[in-house]
Design brief:
The chain has 365 residues and is mainly α. The protein has one domain. The protein contains 17 helices and 2 strands. The chain has a two-stranded antiparallel ribbon. β1 and β2 form a beta hairpin. The longest helix is centred in the C-terminal third of the chain and has 42 residues. It is globular, with a radius of gyration of 24 Å. The N and C termini lie far apart (64 Å).
């Protein structure tokens, strides 16, 4: 039973990562609400460690110092670090929880627990968001800007299957920088030391920019997915897949590039598609399928049946979901999450306005 639940969790985590992570984080934060409130600094330190693991090599790379050792190669820790940079694995679910907490009824017990640690969650969210932003800005922003500033060179060097898809992806990455500029003041003013120095009116006025942040977050996330679907072999798609494991730094053409494997110096978006690429299709789970053509002797894979003649059982991990289907599920998840939030927020705003009007009427009487 436990194995089935674990297999189901892995399948959901692969198929619908945002929804799965969001549910897991919500439950964890509800259970750990008292601990987070009491030991906030410990949680800040814990979530900041991966951020500095990425930041220090990046700074050293910008200074011309290459690190031979990479934490990304450490078992287990490397997997955590790869997930940490994914906005959908840490930063995005945290921002959604913070967003929803303001739209739900604080009188509900579990909402009250989340509302009590909303400030702490805002601070915690900064570390994965900044980590994600650093890698995105270094790896994706220069080429995204080039799409608009020097489109001819971009189209010549990049693997573009759809100009519209490449344009949407490039716009989404540039919008991500705007989103970061909106997010940073909100994050910094979440710290008590900063908040106490601000006037309450100014602080509340600044916090209203959170609605701009949520709007740009939705557009940014939707643009990445739609652009990737329209342009799966394009400049942004391969890099977005490889940048997750960014651990070292490399001087490439005069600028520093975060990358997963220092040994792999080839940039996927600059490699021109070969004849084999044209008919190979999508690779399944990163496995490399090699043909025998051109070797002189044809080879054929032989499948050896298991002993006893029994066919292998098919379980949850054996269910295959295509990349395009996962992207569609992710787009549906975004529409569901942000659409329901908009409904809940507008409903709460109407209720608050009605209560305020009722109190005003009572005061006049």
């Amino acid at each position: 039973m436990i194995k089935v639940l674990m297999d189901l969790m892995v399948f959901l985590r692969t198929t619908a990562p945002l929804l799965t992570t969001l549910v897991i984080f919500t439950l964890l934060f509800i259970l750990l609400s008292k601990s987070i409130k009491k030991h906030a600094n410990i949680y800040y330190i814990g979530f900041s460690i991966p951020f500095f693991i990425y930041l220090i090599p990046a700074i050293l790379g910008w200074c011309g110092v290459d690190m031979e050792f990479s934490f990304i190669r450490v078992p287990v820790l490397g997997e955590i670090l790869r997930d940490y940079i994914h906005m959908g694995s840490f930063g995005h679910p945290l921002l959604i929880i913070i967003m929803y907490t303001g739209a739900l009824d604080p009188k509900v017990s579990w909402v009250k627990k989340l509302y009590g640690i909303r400030k702490e969650l805002s601070i915690i969210s900064g570390f994965p968001v900044l980590t994600h932003s650093i890698v995105r800005i270094v790896n994706n922003l220069p080429d995204s800007l080039k799409f608009f500033t020097n489109n001819a060179e971009y189209m010549e060097n990049a693997r573009v299957a759809s100009g519209l898809g490449a344009g949407i992806s490039s716009f989404s990455f540039v919008l991500g920088v705007v989103m970061l500029a909106v997010y940073l003041p909100l994050w910094v003013t979440s710290f008590d030391s900063v908040r106490k120095r601000m006037e309450a009116v100014k602080w509340k006025k600044l916090q209203k920019w959170a609605y701009v942040l949520y709007t740009t977050l939705f557009i940014h996330a939707m643009g990445i997915q739609i652009g990737g679907m329209l342009n799966p072999r394009g400049e942004q798609a391969p890099r977005a897949a490889t940048e997750v494991a960014a651990a070292g730094t490399q001087r490439n053409g005069g600028r520093t590039q975060l990358q997963a494997n220092p040994e792999n110096r080839e940039r996927p978006q600059e490699r021109q598609p070969s004849n084999a690429d044209a008919g190979s299709g999508e690779r399944n789970n990163g496995q490399n399928v090699q043909g025998a053509a051109g070797q002189g002797n044809s080879q054929q894979a032989v499948v050896v049946p298991p002993r006893g003649g029994r066919a292998p059982s098919v379980g949850i991990p054996d269910i295959k979901v295509s990349q395009q289907t996962r992207q569609k599920i992710h787009i549906g998840s975004l529409i569901l999450i942000f659409g329901s939030y908009l409904y809940l927020r507008l409903r709460k705003a109407k209720r608050d306005a009605a209560k305020k009007q009722s109190k005003t009427a009572e005061a006049d009487i």
